[in-house]
Specification:
By secondary structure, this protein is an alpha+beta fold. It has a domain of 88 residues: Enolase-like, domain 1 (2-Layer Sandwich), CATH 3.30.390. Helix content is 40%, strand content 22%. Strands 1-2-3 form a 3-stranded antiparallel sheet. Helix 3 packs across helix 4.
Length: 126
């Protein structure tokens, strides 16, 4: 039996193949991974010290068409506002983080919770 050595391919170590860099860049892009993707749903669920959160996303062509937020937090207003704000946004980590950050001005008392929520969503969607 013959053995074959594995070749590690990463952004730092690319193989010497024709058009590899262009293909890698195209297939790493958001447009390739989500913009052409079929419609899908994503459920995120987490328990924080301040309450449990469930996020339900419906995504079509990389855009959130429906965002529902369920929580048992004693102050659900920021999360309800987040659900409304996310509809129509691109399903991208930076967009989700910005949506949470933008709520801090409206709900400064929940700054810590919103930052914790943003970090969790970013981790879950990566």
């Amino acid at each position: 039996m013959r053995s074959v050595d594995a070749e590690v391919i990463s952004p730092d170590k690319t193989p010497d193949l024709p058009n590899f860099a262009e293909t890698f860049a195209r297939q790493s892009s958001w447009e390739w991974n989500f913009g052409q993707a079929p419609a899908f749903s994503h459920l995120l669920d987490e328990r924080f010290t301040w309450g449990g959160v469930e996020l339900h996303f419906d995504v079509e062509k990389g855009v959130i068409t429906r965002a529902q937020v369920f929580t048992d937090s004693l102050n659900p207003a920021p999360l309800e506002a987040l659900g409304e704000r996310l509809q129509g946004c691109q399903y991208r980590v930076d967009v989700l983080e910005r949506a949470c950050e933008s709520l801090i001005a409206e709900f400064p008392a929940q700054k810590g919770e919103l930052r914790e929520l943003a970090a969790w969503m970013a981790q879950a969607v990566r």
